[in-house]
Amino acid sequence: MSSIKINHLSFGFTPNNLLFKDLSLSIPTSSFSLLTGPSGSGKSTFLKLLAQLYPTYGGKIDQGSIQNLPTKWSMIFQNPDEQFTMATPAQEFIFTLENLNLNSQQAEKRMLAAVQQTNIKQLLHRNFSTLSGGEKQRVAFAIILAMRPKLLLLDEPFASCDPSNRAFLIKQLALLKQKDITIIISDHDFSYYQHLIDQVFWCSNHTIKLSSLNQLSTPKDTRLNFIPLPHPTPILKLENFSLHTQEQTLIQEQNLSLFTGATLLTGPNGSGKSSFFRVLTKMQPYNGQILLHNKNIQKIKNKKYFKQIGQVFQDPNNQFLMVTVAEELKFGLSHCNNPLLKKATVNELLTLINLNHHQDQVVYSLSGGQKKKLQVLLMLLANPTFLLLDEPFAGLDQHGQQQLITLLQKYFLKLDSQKGLILISHQFNNLDNFFNYHLVLQDKELQYVKEKR
């Protein structure tokens, strides 16, 4: 069996901070490889090296080389918003296949086959800005199928997927494996596709080594316990509320209260969870009234409103205002409203989220998990009354998830009994006994559920 060869490779973004040092590795082709390891260890960077995006668009190879790379490769990025260049999936298909020098008849044939196989016909002509993270991942997968690569690189491809979408994409991967495609997937949660994995590589401490599934702790499908508060206080009230887009109705007219404490919001991909968050941050129109402490939010000036409502965005790149990690935290400290963090230094905050060695790093070059930790800390500095968190665990290993839970408990929820948060997630590890309520958006209705997940 042939293999991709990495020979004594040293790579980094700055000369004094190499991510990989003298790395030598052999990855079998026509096989399925899992690349795993702690958040920030370099998994995404390694995939981009294999895709030849680095060092072309960043970083420098100090020594060594990569050999025997297939000429036809495709990659699904960790952040689906970095995947596309056109406005709609249909346009993206055409752009991609034209770049493969296919004529219009060949391109249309491949597109129709991929659309049918992935069942995305209803998404083809929608703007990418209206698609959920899981829907974008499904579109990305469809385009990959149409490209027919020999090497497929997948960076946390299921992070934004609901269980149904995840199961569907895993079935597609199983079909691709039968076609002798080389598949390399970076992931923290490999549940439900262990049977596809031929070899495991562990990434940490500037190197990548061959490992095995037996040496890894398999994430458990935890059944969550919810602990309702004895006397919950409504923070936000929806009155005769409904939410519509040009394409569809997302939420039918209803009344609902959002309470103090921690609420988990779940629902299928595309049901409108992120759109609901955009409504609560005055970024999307709606019908009816939303009351914050019994006052219509449309009558509250934005400066005052956004001191009370904060959001951790699904796309972390939308969160940052400065260039480096230290600059972001320095800016956050200058506007800090959190009494527990007000006297902290930048170094203390960096140590709190294990980014103390990344002070001078550009925020956009952080790993997906590192960006999530920085996002949450910035919102804790702002200290709003009500916090919205959209997929905050995407790209994080189990230790990183536990870190965020501890931060939210210690520096937000326990700070004031009148605070509340809503968290969207399809990942449930380490979340047992954290939430007070479970809110589900399904069939165009928001409903609290009492049963365990």
From TrEMBL:
Single GO term (MF): ATP hydrolysis activity
One Pfam family linked to the record: ABC_tran
Domain ABC transporter: 4-230, 236-452
Statement: the UniProt record of this protein carries the keyword Nucleotide-binding: yes
Membrane topology summary: Peripheral membrane protein
InterPro entries found in the cross-reference section: AAA+_ATPase, ABC_transporter-like_ATP-bd, ABC_transporter-like_CS, ABC_transpr_CbiO/EcfA_su, ECF_ABC_transporter_ATP-bd, P-loop_NTPase
UniProtKB keywords: ATP-binding, Cell membrane, Membrane, Nucleotide-binding, Translocase, Transport
Entry's Gene Ontology cellular component terms: ATP-binding cassette (ABC) transporter complex
Subcellular location as annotated: Cell membrane
CDD domains given in the database record: ABC_cobalt_CbiO_domain1
Family: Belongs to the ABC transporter superfamily.
The protein, known as: Energy-coupling factor transporter ATP-binding protein
